[in-house]
Amino acid sequence: MAVLNQRSMALCLHFAYTFGLCFFYTSAELQRFEHPTKVDKSLSFLVVGDWGRRGAFNQSQVAFQMGIIGEKLDIDFVVSTGDNFYDNGLTSEEDTAFEESFTKIYTAKSLQKQWYSVLGNHDYRGNAEAQLSPVLRKIDSRWLCLRSFIVNSELAEILFVDTTPFVNAYFTDAEGHTYDWRGINSRKAYISNLLKEVESTLKESTAQWKIVVGHHAIRSVGHHGDTKELTKWLLPILQANNVDFYMNGHDHCLEHISDSDSPVQFLTSGAGSKAWRGDIKGLNREGLNFFYDGQGFMSAQFTKMEAEIVFHDVFGKVLHRWNMVKQLHQSI
């Protein structure tokens, strides 16, 4: 493993002290964060997406229920699937929307854990670099948002992928929106290198559970439907490397779809605030197990042999529960 420089070591010690995690980075690899499991070697976390609206559109109510479920499950961290701040991301590191949509909303004791976040297309419409800035972590130490990175918990390896640059429409038909593409000098090279990193990471992973997180759906029957660029470029890599779950937001709903050609389960959790009631395309319903067009979030629990995925609505009601036994998964 590469030797840490002094700055990286300082950051490592800070995160280790605050959250019990540490990250390692080299210029040729994605940043990797080590997040230990519980003493009993189990892991649990919440997944929420498309939320940042200063508490409006039931964001506060969803946050309240997340706090209750988070305490019940003794969660280790929270995953955000992007579109963290509406309508157009943050304007700067000093934008008050960060505290008004995040710090002052997710106040429950159980949610004072590390948040791992990716950027969504709405985040790219603002100052995307602001969300990636360590300045925000000084304001709220829970916050960690990068373009693409890895979280390793021994039991599970979670690969966060920056999916927005994959979507052609944001470059060819921006519909009047302006996107912050700083850091992506060559889209073609950026995507090519990212796909190589994803494939390499998944091939080398020895984790019991392999999870990939992105903002855009690979499969969805919601408003946006399937993301054809991800179906073409990312999905084959997931299928070839025994990925168990792909988690995303983007469509403002909750849904679970099973892949017809592999064990991959597509899990959409993009209902953190404003939902799109009745907005269902249904163009490709193959493998659809569950769809809910209201607000809510998802919880995930893992042991060495079992996984349990649960979708909760804005009142905390269980809408859909799905259990997976690893031995059965491996025998498929």
From TrEMBL:
Location in the cell: Secreted
Catalytic activity: a phosphate monoester + H2O = an alcohol + phosphate
Keyword terms of this UniProt record: Glycoprotein, Hydrolase, Iron, Metal-binding, Secreted, Signal, Zinc
Species in which this protein is naturally found: Lithocarpus litseifolius
Subcellular location, principal: secreted
Ranges where the Calcineurin-like phosphoesterase domain occurs: 44-253
Protein name: Purple acid phosphatase
Cofactor(s) needed for function: Fe cation
Coiled-coil segments on the chain, per record: none
